[in-house]
Amino acid sequence: MLHPITTEHYLVLSAALLLIGTVGILLRRNAVVVMMSLELILNAVNINLVAFGKHLQQLNGQVFAIFIITVAVAEAAVGLGILIAVFRNKETVLVDEIDLLKW
Amino acid sequence: MLETGFFYAFAALTLIGAILTVTLRNAIHCAISLIGSLAGVAGLYLLQKAEFLFAVQIVLYIGGIMVLFLFVIMLVNLDAAARERQYHRHWLAAVICTVGSGALITWFLRQGSGTMHLGQSAPELPSAGNVEALSDVLFKQYLVPFELASVLLLVAVVGSVIMAKKRI
Q1: Are residues B90 and B134 in the same domain?
Q2: Chain A: nearest CA to B56, how far in angstroms?
């Protein structure tokens, strides 16, 4: 017996994806994997926006998702550039070894 | 129902890919499971009749961002990092934060599902096609943010080039 899919299904899925991404950001030491978890979180937000847009029968949600994808691309490009610069200077990408500003 | 089956298949692909991304040791394996997760999200877009976002997700995320990630993994020597400990020493704080936010989200979902009546959705509008309708909204209602986004992309291009240069 399969129920029809409602908006709540998408919301629960998006919440689960967001929590997995949060675990990745807070727990992993590898900075590349931390940025991948960031992409997971942005995708969770996009699922939410598209689901609510479909629920309300408006296209604004999808337009917002497009803008979020734009910001995600910009963030990934700049972030990976910063990562390469950090690796060139410190020879590591483990986030808890990049602790110059920590007292 | 076919849609229900597809939803659970794509949701499983998304969640399993995400869990593997967070847990695997080798960064390239993480990237490949992230590709699986993003493909699952693309399938969910298709289920919700967002065909343009489906194409954008495939072309931009899987084709663009993931190639960028793989390039960086190639440039940055991750073999030493893969042999070391994968998780922080303060993992308990992270787990507490995640469980707390998960409890908050569950509480809000329960609150909202009582008052917002998320069960039934509005009647479907006769649409002329997703891309046409979307471009109509994007170029009329959201023209200024659209142009500002191009400025943001320009800034990102310049910034990433400067960041990756040998001498700043």
Answers
A1: no
A2: 8
> Which residue of chain B comes nearest to A94, CA vs CA?
B81
Given an 8 Å threshold on Cβ–Cβ distance, is A37 in contact with B124?
Answer: no
What structural domains does chain A harbor?
7-90 (1.10.287.3510)
Nearest-CA distance B83 → chain A (Å): 11
Task: Classify the phi-psi angles of B83: left when phi > 0, otherwise alpha if psi is within -120 to 50, otherwise beta.
Answer: alpha
pLDDT tens over chain B, length 168 residues = 788 999 999 999 999 999 999 999 888 999 999 999 999 999 999 998 888 999 999 999 999 899 989 988 888 877 777 777 778 888 888 889 999 999 999 898 888 776 666 555 555 655 567 788 888 888 999 999 999 999 999 999 999 888 878 776
B44 — contact with chain A (CB < 8 Å)?
yes
Same domain, B75 and B138: no
Write out chain B residues lying below 8 Å of A67, CB-based.
142, 145, 149
The answer to the question of residue B103 being in a domain is no
- Structural domain total, chain B: 2
Q: What ipTM does this complex have?
A: 0.91
The domain containing residue B133 runs over which residues? 127-168
DSSP 3-state percent helix, strand, coil across chain B (nearest 5): 80, 0, 20
Q: Which residue has the tokens 């990756």?
A: B164
**Domain final residue pick, B55, B76, B95:** B95
Return the number of other C-beta atoms located less than 10 Å from residue B9's C-beta. 13
